[in-house]
Amino acid sequence: MKLTRGERLQIMLTPEEIAAVDDWRFKSRMPSRAAAVRELLKRGLAAEGFDAAPFGRKSRDFGVTERHNGNGATSAKPDGLD
User: Fold this and answer.
1) What b-and-e string marks burial along 39-55, b requiring 16 or more CB atoms within 10 Å of the CB?
2) For 27, which of 37, 55, 62, 80 is 20 to 30 Å away at the CA?
3) pTM of the model
4) What is d(CA 55, CA 58) in angstroms, rounded to the nearest whole number?
């Protein structure tokens, strides 16, 4: 069965976020950046133990290389993206 990808998803990332994705990609021996992002999405969607985003949160509140808690504060890189 041939898998076709008919939808394009475009996102904007900072240079630091691209570096984190690419570092993970190479460490995980993924064949492409797109394959790495799909695998990270699959893992994120399968993950448990996180709360839904509170009402009113902005897109800028969700970064790849830093964590945001419920009150807007940030912390270091998420685990596994060092």
Assistant:
1) ebeeeeeeeeeeeeeee
2) 62
3) 0.66
4) 9
CA distances from 79 to 8, 10, 20, 35 (A): 28, 25, 11, 20
Q: Per residue in 26-51, pLDDT tens?
A: 999 999 999 999 999 999 889 877 77
- Distance from first CA to last CA of the chain, Å, rounded? 37
Task: Tell me phi and psi for residue 66, to 5 degrees.
Answer: -145, 150
Would you list the domain boundaries of the chain?
A: 15-48+56-75
According to DSSP, the residues that pair with 74 across neighbouring strands are 68
